[in-house]
Amino acid sequence: MQRHHKHFYLLLRGRLHSWITRCTRGSRLSDLVLAIPDLFYLMCRMLADPRVSAADKLRFAGGISYFMWPADLIPDVMFPFGFLDDMVICATILDKFISHAPKEVVLDNWPGSQDVLTLIRRLLGLAQVVSRIRQSGKRRGKGKTAPAN
After folding, report:
1. In 3D, which of 95, 85, 82, 100 has the Cα closest to residue 42?
2. From CA 87, how far away is CA 104, in angstroms rounded?
3. What are residue 48's phi and psi, to 5 degrees?
4. Which phi and psi angles does 59 have, rounded to 5°?
C-alpha cells in the first residue's frame, strides 16, 4: 500500500473508531461504519494482487480516488455519512469483479472481521432501497404544478 493510502486508511480508521465510541455503540450502523476503512484497504490490496486484471485494477483505482476525493456525491465533511456513497461505489466495483473472477481473490485480500460478501450484498441492497425511495419521491412530485403568484 502506498504511503498516502496508508495514511488515509489510518486517519479514517481512527476518526471512525472515535465516532462509534461516542455515538453508535452496539447499533447496526456501527458495523457499516467500521467497514469503511476496511473497504478502502481492500481496494488498495486489489491493486497489488497479480490475479486482478488491468481493467479491474483501473476500476479499483477509480474507487480509491473516489474514496479520497472529499467533494463527491455526499461530501465527506458530513462525517461519517459522507462515506456511505463511497461504500456503495466500492461494493458496486467489488460486485462487478466477483461476477467474473474468483471470489477467493476478494476473500484473500479482505482485512476486516465481517463477512465481506454479505457486506457487499447489504450495501447494494441499501443502495437499491435509497434509489427506490428517490424514484417514488420523483413520481409523487410528477404532475404537480407550482402555485401561481
Report:
1. 95
2. 20
3. -90, -10
4. -65, -45
Contact 98, 106 (CB under 8 A): yes
pLDDT score at 57: 96
**CA-CA-CA-CA dihedral for 42, 89, 93, 28, to nearest 10:** 60
φ, ψ for residue 79, nearest 5 deg:
-65, 135
Mean pLDDT for back-to-back runs of 10 residues, the chain (149 residues): 70 72 64 80 93 96 84 58 76 92 93 87 82 69 52
Q: How far is CA 7 from CA 3, 60, 77, 105, 141, in A?
A: 6, 18, 18, 24, 45
For 104, how many CA atoms within 13 A lie in the half-sphere containing its CB? 2
φ/ψ of residue 80, rounded to 5 = -90, 0
d(CA 31, CA 112): 11
d(CA 72, CA 103): 28
